Amino acid sequence: MSPSTPENPASATYLPKQEASVSFPPDRTALLVIDPVNDFLSEGGAAWQMTRTTVTKHDVVGHLKRAIEGARERGVPVLFGPMAYTEEDYAGEQLQRRSGINRLMFEKKMFLAGSWGADFHPDLQPGSCSSRMWAVTTDDPERQTGL
Question: How far apart (Å, rounded) are the C-alpha atoms in residues 50 and 46?
């Protein structure tokens, strides 16, 4: 890939100031939404005390919702990558010995599979597979979408 210059912004990973928009080839593009779950994005979520200021100040849910709707309107696949841990994961020593954010996740049992906290935020739902959306699993999502 050639370096980005003012004369050649096509290789830029950002939107140059003089550009009003950017476009992507819809047949080679997907929107990947990572961890749009209640524990991060909803009042009452296990991480809400840590994320509340950023989520509300920057209207994270609103911006994600607009990005998802915009992708769907243009026929761009929307892939969801949720995080979830099982009770067995929480019982394991490996998770208990973690530090920092991982330790906090253990203590608060964030993203517990089957819990409200690990569910998708109500405004950020994957929908049905028939409308070209998939929840990312351990399977290769490129095989599912052809991207």
Answer: 9
User: Does 23 map to a domain?
Assistant: no
Per 3-state DSSP, what percentage of the chain is helix, strand, and coil (rounded to 5)? 45, 10, 45
Please name the amino acid found at residue 11. S
CATH code, domain with 34: 3.40.50.850
Give pLDDT tens digits for 47-105. Answer: 999 999 999 999 999 999 999 999 999 889 999 988 888 888 888 777 667 777 777 88
* Amino acid letter, 68: I
The phi, psi pair for 71, rounded to 5°, reads -65, -45
- Does residue 146 sit in helix, strand or coil? coil
Residue 80: inside a domain: yes
Q: Is residue 59 part of a domain?
A: yes
The Cα 25–Cα 29 span in angstroms is: 6
Q: What is the pTM for the complete model shown?
A: 0.70
Q: Greatest CA separation found in the chain?
A: 56
Q: Which of 136, 104, 29, 8 is nearest to 72 (CA)?
A: 29
Number of domains in the chain: 1
| 15: in domain | no
